[in-house]
Amino acid sequence: GMDPVWQSASNKIIFQNSFKMKLSIIIGVIHMVFGVCMSVVNHGYFGNGIYVLLEFLPQVLFLILLFAYMCVLMFMKWILYGPPDHKSIYCAPSVLITFINMMLFKDSNSGKDPKFKDCDPYMYPYQNSIQMGLVLLAVLCIPVMLLGKPIYLLCCGGLKKHHKEGQEEEPAGEIWIHQAIHTVEYILSTISHTASYLRLWALSLAHAQLSEVLWQMVFNMGLVMGIEYYGGIIIYIFFAFWAFGTIAILILMEGLSAFLHTLRLHWVEFCSKFYSGNGYLFIPFSFKRIISQEDEEE
After folding, report:
1. What pTM was estimated for this model as a whole?
2. Short-list 24, 55, 23, CA closest to 193
3. Whole-number Å distance between alpha carbons of 270 and 36
């Protein structure tokens, strides 16, 4: 939990906003990495072990090299820049700006505000060079995702195995187009799905503000009225309104809202990493069809 002293701090909103935003991103990245790892079970079940190298490995590396690294920067910022040194808090670099500069291959020292001329924009030695290497490795994962599976299917005998498993025969052009769409969709989804987990931050802030309003505007009024003889009765009445508002708004309405949001996060952001849902065409049981097929075979 969070230290209750933050409830009376003047910078409570600033601190909680930053903390909850980072925490929602960390939860989202862990959730998505676990979803990508679930695809290994699918590849093993369907006997497509080569797809672990051609699909799973570049996908999980792309996610870890960029977005898991961003989570590492968040933990480093929490650990390295603490209260003992006031200057270190003042010089704490923005993780968002650092990540943008990393993607643009931009030196964080360039264009720095003169007010922070004595501050080091990097958290550890050789950070700029390491970040460039991480981005280059992530970019190299893209052609593996784009070209690996089609080349295996068309040139390495994978297409014959693909057909033996009951899959419909696809022309080479459709294989390339399907893989290109799948690759572009995955690359873009890593960004959009990570941002989608910020809904956890918004839900937490809304829930906190509603609970604070119910406490200050309802129950707290009964506590500070100062009526000597009837104070217990007044508190009892205000408690009834506060309890009703808590159950109706915070538990029922906010609970339903949280359920709908987590349902979407599991179905889209999580399941899209491993669940395809192609299935097979439903053919109802029919003696007439079976007999006609046997007659055609004879």
Report:
1. 0.83
2. 24
3. 8
In a domain, 50, yes or no: yes
Q: Are residues 87 and 179 in the same domain?
A: yes
What's the 3-state SS for the chain? CCCHHHHHCCCHHHHHHHHHHHHHHHHHHHHHHHHHHHHHHHHHHCCCCHHHHHHHHHHHHHHHHHHHHHHHHHHHHHHHCCCCCHHHHHCCCCHHHHHHHHHCCCCCCCCCCHHHCCCCCCCCCCHHHHHHHHHHHHHHHHHHHHHHHHHHHHHCCHHHHHHHCCCCCCCHHHHHHHHHHHHHHHHHHHHHHHHHCCHHHHHHHHHHHHHHHHHHHHHHHHHHCCCCCCHHHHHHHHHHHHHHHHHHHHHHHHHHHHHHHHHHHHHHHHHHHCCCCCCCCCCCCCHHHHHHHHHHHC
Q: Side chain identity at 266, as an amino acid letter?
A: H
What residues make up the domain containing 253?
Answer: 200-298
- Please tell me the distance from the alpha carbon of residue 182 to that of residue 55, in angstroms, as a whole number: 10
- The predicted-structure confidence for 106-147, as pLDDT tens digits, reads as follows 887 766 667 767 788 889 999 999 999 999 999 999 999 999
Residue 7 lies in a domain: no
